[in-house]
Amino acid sequence: MTLRIGIIGCGGIGQEHARRLHFKLGGAQVVAINDIDVAAATQFSEMSGIKARVLDSDQAVIDAPDVDALVVASWGPAHEEQVLACIKAGKPVFCEKPLAVTAEGARRIVDAEVQAGRKLVQVGFMRRYDAGYRALKQTLDAGTVGDALLVHAAHRNPAVPEMYVGDMSITDTFIHEIDVFRWLLNDDYVSVQVIEGRKTRNAHAGLHDPITVLLETRQGVRIDTEIFVACRFGYDIQCHVVGETGVASLPEPMSVPLRSNARQGTGILMDWKLRFIESYDVELQDWIDATVRGEVAGPDAWDGYVASVTAEACIEARRTKQILPIALPERPAFYARQG
Ligand SMILES: NC(=O)c1ccc[n+]([C@@H]2O[C@H](COP(=O)([O-])OP(=O)(O)OC[C@H]3O[C@@H](n4cnc5c(N)ncnc54)[C@H](O)[C@@H]3O)[C@@H](O)[C@H]2O)c1
Ligand SMILES: O[C@H]1[C@H](O)[C@@H](O)[C@H](O)[C@@H](O)[C@H]1O
Fold first, then answer.
1. Separation of 15 CA from ligand 1 center, angstroms?
2. pTM for this entry
3. How many CB atoms within 10 Å of residue 339?
4. Both 150 and 182 in a single domain?
5. Please, what are the averages of pLDDT over each run of 10 residues along the chain (339 residues)?
6. Pocket (CB within 6 angstroms of ligand 1)
7. Which of 20, 132, 281, 300 can pair with 24 through a Cys bridge, CB separation 3.0 to 4.6 Å?
8. Position in ligand 1 atom list of the atom nearest CA 98
């Protein structure tokens, strides 16, 4: 069966997902698209060779009888309403992060899905599909370094645009770590502290960069993460888990070690798209296959909700300069399996 897909939001990642779904992956075809910029969507549909129907509203794509499933890649504030409309229409939806821009909004999605009685929502936390993170999780689950005690991590971007301001270090960037650590450790968070240290002169006026986030989990694991989005030197994701008998680290992306010009070393990527390109492919192929089976196999609406609650606690901890508790309700039975 070919899954017929509607795309809502055809900006940077929407276009990339549309191309990979239509041309690269198996079992899917993009049949309809929408963007609030209809002219841009029309141009994309033609230029990309996808030649999907361009509809003039998100609801029209959701309602189209030949659309089996949706990809929501519009900007964050539109996600909640669009995902709720997909649930109402009974159609599976892959929603890019964040699931919603507030915890309350994400909760409304969880409640609507539970009410509908069927899991329909997957959230675009692609790191769970990254070969390196998967190998690290396997190592931890096998008990190779004993129980996890500490995690030292870093999320470094070379630069961010002027529109990236304020708490986007948390809502746009650290949100990936929020999801991936609880998946890696099979755990949830209980408290958070955010520390703003000396600011780099390379960050623009609206941004305090870098920051450090300290999370504590239910099992007492302490996680420190540096978020440094104007680091200049590369796109650099680090994760080192200190266990009782050893340290397990996220593998570096493959790069040919060079000895040349009186130096030895390996390259560092500069772009997140390249760093996670294979993860996006694996993620969306898995989504296609699970959707055809009538399942959600990846990060679900509950994971999206937990990420939103945690991100809000981080923002409040940053504002108040306090160590704050993270109050998470128990996972409903409906979401019993962890993706
Ligand atoms: N998983 C990841 O690694 C990853 C990477 C990049 C972006 N994202 C997420 O994907 C989303 C899109 O990011 P982007 O970088 O492509 O942004 P973008 O600004 O390039 O694209 C967003 C597009 O959505 C359109 N849009 C906005 N509101 C809309 C609405 N109500 N209906 C239809 N279209 C609408 C805009 O016109 C634009 O074309 C964001 O939520 C972002 O956080 C995730
Ligand atoms: O939207 C992007 C993307 O999610 C990247 O993975 C992250 O490193 C960036 O900080 C963020 O701005």
1. 10
2. 0.96
3. 18
4. yes
5. 96 97 98 98 98 98 98 97 98 97 97 97 98 98 98 98 94 97 97 97 94 98 98 98 98 96 96 94 98 97 98 98 95 79
6. 8-14, 34-37, 58, 73-76, 78, 96-97, 124, 126, 172
7. 20
8. 41
